[in-house]
Amino acid sequence: MRLRHIEVFHAIRQTGSISQAAKLLGVTQPAASKVLQHAERTLGFKLFERVKGRLYPTVEADILYVEVDRLQQGLDQLKALAVNLRRYPEGRLHVGCLPSMGLSILPRVIRAFRERYPSVTCEVETNHLDALVSGLRSRQLDLAVIYGEETFPDLRSQPLGECELVYLGPQAGADFALESLHGEDLIGIVANDSIGRIIAGRFAQLGVKPKPQIEVQTYYVACAMAAEGCGATIVDEITARSMQREGLHIRRVRPAMTVPLAVLTHERNVIRGFYDGFTALVKEAVGR
User: Fold this and answer.
1) How far apart are CA 246 and CA 241, in angstroms?
2) Which UniProt key words apply to this protein (predicted)?
């Protein structure tokens, strides 16, 4: 199939008619019909059947559509990239991060970045790790700031430093002993998360088996639960400080635990100067 075949087929599959597909593509109805006929001749089978004036895809068309839709998404991303290059000739940074970072460290990093690179347009997206990795691989994201030291095929990782894990809860005091945290008091982080794995591993080393009554997937939700009196949680210090409220106390935990931070990018991504500038600002913020 040629590129024009793909565009017309995709448009008809979406709209259900040649006339609506032509409007969507900005061409005449005869032109769209001609492209469809040429595509069907080239393929050797029909793509649509006409029933009471409406086009319905054939079985072969439904099978093709899975791959065609993926190609069309790539074409749409390419068009968006071309538009952005025209609109933002000086540059554009699309960075992803975990939700808790979007509420804590990223706002001040972006402020500093905009002061240093005023001509670069910024877009910030918050999501969970799997979605961030997917966004980097599809080139929707330029950079992603994450917790953990996982390595991913075709992605480059640059360490930023470490962040200490802390107690956030209603009990004031000095250092907090992990052994004293009972299951009914704990707002847990799911074990498939970077911080969740670190906490679970440390509990296992101590021979402690807490059974949290509440488990969450995001750090700031754990902090919000603690703020509502649901218990105490163990999270990174960056998130804890940004979510601290009256009646909540931050305490260092013993034995101490830290989580590494890193910036990910696609290994074939062209590294622009302001990428390094952004990474340096995140590293500086983590150090503070």
Assistant:
1) 12
2) DNA-binding, Transcription, Transcription regulation
Asked whether 143 and 265 are in contact (CB, 8 A), the reply is yes
Query: Quick one: angle between helices 3-15 and 29-43, nearest 10?
Result: 110
Residue 264 phi, psi dihedral angles, 5° rounding: -105, 145
d(CA 114, CA 138): 25
Q: Token pair for residue 30?
A: 């005869």
pTM of the model: 0.65
Contacts for 39-45: CB closer than 8 Å, 24+ residues apart: 39/1, 39/2, 39/5, 39/8, 39/9, 42/1, 42/2, 42/5, 43/1
**Least confident residue range of 16-20, 184-188, 244-248:** 184-188
In this predicted model, what pLDDT tens digit does every residue of 218-245 receive, in sequence order?
A: 888 999 999 999 989 999 998 998 888 8
Q: What is the largest CA-CA distance in the chain?
A: 78
**For domain 92-161+260-287, which CATH number applies: 3.40.50.790, 2.60.40.10, 3.40.190.10, 3.40.630.30?**
3.40.190.10
